[in-house]
Amino acid sequence: MREKRLLLNKIILLLSTLSAIAGMLFLAWILITLFLKGIGSISLSVFTKDLVNGGLKNLIFGQFVMAGLATLIGVPLGVMAGIYLREYGRGRYVNLIRDLSDIMMSAPSIVIGAFVFAFMVVPMGGINGWAGAVALAIMLVPIVVSTTDNMLSLVPKELREAGIALGGGKYRVILDIILRAAKVGLMTGILLAFARIIGETAPLLFTSGTNSFWTTNLNDAFPSLTVSIYNLANFPTDKARDLAWAASFILTVIVLIINLLGRYIIRQRKRK
């Protein structure tokens, strides 16, 4: 019996190792292809010209604007919901809300785009930047809710009791003690959530679309790096496809930097 368990353990270990190696090889293949195809298409004009002139300046700006607006909308809502779940909520309804939040995190992004299209794009008479920001915010909120809930659960109960013993009201204890104790974890979660939404394409296809020209008017079609990658990749010209590779490389680098920054913050926190 012992020999069978040892054999089974070795088989599972071997399969797990092979799966990990296969996953790493595919990831390396994707990153190497992006690097080789994208780095050759990068030039100064890519960052100084708009799409209409063969650059990506307006697209990078537009992507960050919509992701930034989504963060401004989604972070306060997500943090407040997470605080409610951990500090105020009681009973089975709290678990129901947690389950719904988890379901929202795994919801297909294209479904969120279709939803925002129905209640925002159609009434406003066409695609616009506001709708794109709202779609990204809807994707961001459940991530921030889950992060806030989990980070607050790690704060020792003794800190709460000490704050109350000193005469602080519940909301003061939450603001001055609990949130400060969990601020590193919260910031890391927000960074990773931002990295998640800045690379989204599907919800923006229905909501913001894209624009080849520089614009700050969120009431109209708004420049989007991800949507433009999708469009450029389907163009018949080599120049357009090269620009799509350059945009893909830039987007990958942005997401990678944000994720590495989040991981670095986590490691620094663990050392302390």
CATH architecture annotation name of the largest domain: Orthogonal Bundle
Percentage of β-strand residues:
under 5%
Tally the helices.
Answer: 12
CATH class of the largest domain: Mainly Alpha
Q: What is the CATH T-level topology of the largest domain?
A: MetI-like fold
- Give the overall shape: globular
State the distance separating the first and last CA atoms: 45 Å
As for the number of domains, it is 2
Q: Could you tell me the radius of gyration in angstroms? A: 23 Å
**Largest sheet features:** none
The topology string of helices and strands comes to: HHHHHHHHHHHH
Uncertain spans: none
Mean pLDDT: 86
Percent of residues in helices comes to: over 70%
Structural class: mainly alpha
The CATH homologous superfamily name of the largest domain equals: MetI-like
